[in-house]
């Protein structure tokens, strides 16, 4: 009798995992970029709204199957990880000098304009937006430096996508393949304890370990649900 009850409970749990509520397996219910690529713009996984888990997975699998397999063969996963790391380093290498150039130019401009706000005595100093001119100049230079860093990194990504369009397309396709697989096989857990977004996956071996961990999470979820129904 207890065996029949446990079997019935397991069936009800599995049915619950496919319900619209999705109370046990949070399969990315909000649109979220997966592992933004330093070269191409990050893509968005489809939002799961009123669909069941099975329907949502079917949509993800359909998108996964529609990817250009020739581009995936052109860039194996291990090569993709290495290339992504190199491009991230290159992006930083462009962003750092861009930050320095922007700060230098803004500081030169501020040094030229600041004397207009400085008086002979502290009482004669004209504040800028309720701030001391020197404080304002420091903040402005820092903000412009950050803007310069982002602009330099953005320009690098755009130039790479234009000059090496075929490689950039292969990178984006591999990124989408990886992201869809993460969403398709994820079984819950937390971003900090269970590598929810697959950030720690650096090789095919890491991906297989992640899949085993997801299966373990699913098993534990079912066991907890069964125990709560005893």
In short:
With 230 residues, the protein is mainly alpha-helical.
How many angstroms does the end-to-end distance come to?
12 Å
Task: Determine the structural class based on helices, strands and strand pairing.
Answer: mainly alpha
Give a quick account of the main beta sheet: strands, pairing sense, barrel closure: none
Unreliable parts: 1-42
Number of strands: 0
| Radius of gyration based on Cα positions | 26 Å
Strand content: under 5%
Which shape, going by the Cα principal axes?
Answer: elongated
Multimerization state: single chain
- What is the string of SSEs from the N terminus onward? HHHHHHH
Mean pLDDT score:
76
Helix content: 55-70%
Can you count the helices? Answer: 7
Task: Annotate the secondary structure layout.
Layout: H1 2-17, H2 53-65, H3 69-74, H4 77-113, H5 133-163, H6 165-185, H7 204-228
């Amino acid at each position: 009798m207890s065996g029949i009850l446990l079997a019935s409970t397991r069936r009800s749990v599995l049915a619950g995992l496919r319900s619209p509520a999705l109370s046990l397996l949070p399969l990315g219910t909000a649109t979220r970029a997966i592992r933004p690529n330093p070269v191409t713009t990050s893509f968005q996984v489809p939002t799961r709204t009123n669909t069941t888990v099975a329907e949502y997975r079917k949509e993800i699998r359909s998108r996964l199957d529609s990817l250009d397999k020739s581009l995936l063969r052109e860039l194996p996963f291990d090569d993709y990880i290495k290339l992504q790391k190199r491009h991230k380093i290159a992006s930083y290498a462009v962003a750092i000098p861009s930050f320095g150039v922007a700060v230098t130019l803004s500081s030169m401009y501020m040094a030229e304009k600041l004397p207009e706000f400085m008086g002979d005595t502290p009482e004669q100093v004209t504040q800028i937006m309720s701030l001391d001119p020197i404080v304002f100049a420091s903040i402005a230079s820092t903000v412009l430096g950050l803007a310069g860093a982002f602009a330099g990194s953005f320009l690098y990504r755009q130039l790479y996508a234009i000059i090496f369009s075929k490689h950039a397309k292969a990178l984006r396709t591999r990124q989408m393949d990886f992201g869809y697989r993460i969403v398709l096989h994820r079984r819950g857990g937390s971003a900090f304890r269970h590598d929810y977004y697959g950030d720690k996956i650096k090789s095919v071996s890491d991906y297989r370990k992640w899949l085993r961990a997801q299966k373990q999470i699913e098993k534990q979820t079912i066991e907890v649900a069964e125990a709560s129904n005893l």
